[in-house]
Structures are given as C-alpha cells and as structure tokens.
Amino acid sequence: PHKRIASERKLAKQYELSHMTVRRITKRLAHEKLIYKVQGKGMFTAEQPANSQDIRETILYANDWPQPEHPYVAGMFSGILKHASQDQKIQVIQYSGSEINSENSNFLKEIAFPGVRGIILSWLSEDLYQLIKTVNPDIRIVFTLPGEIREDTSFVGWDRQGLKEQMRTYLISQQKNNLLFIDSNPETAAGTESAQSIVFENDPASGFENMIANTGYNMTEFVQKIMERNPEGIAFSNDYLAHELLWKIRAVKPDFFERTAVVSLANKGSNILPPEAARLEISGLEVGTMAIQTLKAMITDDTLGGSEIIIRPRLVPPKLEGNSKFWLANG
Asked: pTM of the predicted model, to two decimals?
C-alpha cells in the first residue's frame, strides 16, 4: 500500500491531478481487469485482460516526444485524464514512441481489441495510419502535430504557419524589420530536435519568406552566421534551440538584447528562455482536453471527423526588469 500511495502521489504531482483523481483512475483500471502499473517516469501501461469484452471503451494515448515528463506532454496527458476521470466508459492507456516502434510491444495488439475505439497520437505518418487501420479498421484517430487529415482522423494542435505569422506580427510591432526565423527541421522525425536547422529570412516589405539554407554548421558557426545577418528580430520555433543559441550569442555580443527583439515558441516551460525573450506559450492541457473531447465526439458520431482544430498560442511579453541581469550573468 505504501508503494502504491507513493506512486499515486508521484503521478498526481507529475500530471497536475488530485491524488483522488489518480486513485479513481487506477481503481477503475483494476476493476476492468486491466493490470495497472507505474513504469519508468509515471507512464500508464496495461496488459491484456483475460476477457477483452470487459473493455467497454478504451482510448489509447501515444506520444513520440523525447521525454514523458516534458511539460507540454505532461499537460496534454493531464487534459486527457481529467476528461477520462469524469466518464466511467473511458479508460486511458499511455504509450511512448519507443513502445510504438518496438517489435515486441503490445501496442498493435492493444489497438486490435474490439473495445478500443480511438487513439490520440502526437504524430501520424502514412505508414503508421495504414498499420493502425489494418489491425482495427473502425478506430478513430486524433493527432496533435500537423499531418494529412482524413474523414476518420482529426487534427488538434497548433498551426506552424499561423505560429510564424504570430511571431512576425509581434516583431513588426516592435518596429523591427530585418527579421530572421529559425525553425527546427520539419524533414526530421517528429519529436526530435537538432541544432542542424533551417533558417528563414524575410524581405521587410513581405514578411517571412522561403528557406534560404539547410545549415550544416555547428553551433558556433551557426551563431556567427546569425550575427553576420545582423537581425533586428529573431523568431524561434524551438525553445531548446533558442536557449542554446541565445546563450552563445550573448557570449559573443553581450548587448545583443538591447538591439534585437526575440520571440520563441515555449512548450518546455518558461524557465528555459531568458526573460528578455517574448514567448508564445501553447497549453498542453488545452490541447489534451480538446483532443479527447474531439475523439469522444468522433466515436459517438461516425459522421464526425476530418476536422482541424487550431489552438492559438498565448503571447507572453518579455520581462525587461527583475532577474534579467541574473540570467545574463548565469545563463
């Protein structure tokens, strides 16, 4: 019992749920003859029940983000669980990307159960879609990173182009014209991050334009290339990359923030970015809540699906006072 209570409290803290909500979820999983266990960093998994008919309606949740404790991922799972805890017909099982891609995983076996009606994925490739529909043709799918939308799938998440436009609008509002947009490579696998990035620049009259180079530089060379362009405003699609580059840019140019405005996507938590950078914060909790509500509606009504629900990020302006000097001194 002590280990179980400790596990429940750990999950409650990680996913911002009450202890009683976690207990209700775990008790219901046990009641439905699903074996509940805590694996690794608080991930919910389940083994096949003796009688699959005991599963009335199961929602699977799978993400291919690097870490389950990632604030955005934890927020998304919290949104899913909070909705599921209010509906006795829904059970939620979480899978990581490594489980999806493992040949020994029960992931596809779980999907094949008649009681599994829907799945929430962080990404949906053509191959994965075909594989899932092969084992369960009736399953409904919601995904949260942009991809192809079909009549039995829906997209809930942020729009990459819209994000760029929000960033551009912010920088222009700061009277900045020579803008640089630094984007993590969309050709790499979903959920991965790389310092090898694609850089976009703009003509002041027309806003963000096309790709200029697929960089092969290391971080130091990358910083030099950015400095050579002497931008008045920089936008980042990746807050980890923003943190790494801004740290190094500041070492080369200590007065960088006095002239250059910076805005970045922020889904790993606000602490990773310097206070001088404006942030576009995307709520994983909001995405998770909307994802499971959308999926539930698709399961209830077969005519629904094929929809695109865009969650707009919230702009948090830079902090120009307070602890900014501390960040500049300590990174």
From this structure: 0.66
